Structure prediction request, 223 residues.
Amino acid sequence: MSKSEIWKNVDFYFNDKLHTSDPIMNSILKANSEAHLPAIDVAPNQGKFLYLLAKLKNAKNILEIGTLGGYSSVWLGRALPEDGHLITLEFDKKHAKVAKENIKMAGLENKIEVIVGPALETLPTLKEKGVHFFDFIFIDADKPNNPHYLKWALEYSRPGTVIIVDNVVRNGEVTDEKSEDLSVLGVRQFTDLLSAEPRIESTAIQTVGLKGYDGFVIGVVKE
Prediction:
């Protein structure tokens, strides 16, 4: 049995034993597939991990950069209290339409707001909407812009804000100094910025499973 088969089997085992999915979440993945969205949603166990982190943080205001079909949006939305709110930013109009339908199906349309357009254009407008900070920020969008997303995440943070960035290992390619892949370059530039940023404490975790070999960065804002 190959390593990737072992990783998948372990995910299947824990997903079954620890109930990391349910009919609604399965329906969202089915809707995304039928709409021919890229199959790049977080895995079920990763979605529940995000949910648990947001619960541990007692997050009331969440920002997500990169909606796709709303799978991770719903996981995070489920962690919110009754008066909580999540803003998720999506570039693609088709993806946003599917996401809105999935969010409504999950009964979270009153908690989750989908904003359509390039994130670097919509992020500045949040201040006009009266948004000053978020408790929890999840970045899972186009990797070349990760350095810019980090700057905006810090702009909308306060001490204690949790920032998570997905897909930072890139199957190990993040260590390739000669890589010309724009996603790898974006992650490396993001990591360099993070390394020099005194306002945040952070670490990186490598992951394996249904989505192959990758990882994420998690940080907590200090000041």
About this structure: Strands lie at 61-65, 85-90, 112-116, 136-139, 162-166, 200-209, 212-221. The domain at 3-221 is CATH 3.40.50.150 (Rossmann fold). Residues 91 and 121 are 10 Å apart (CA to CA).
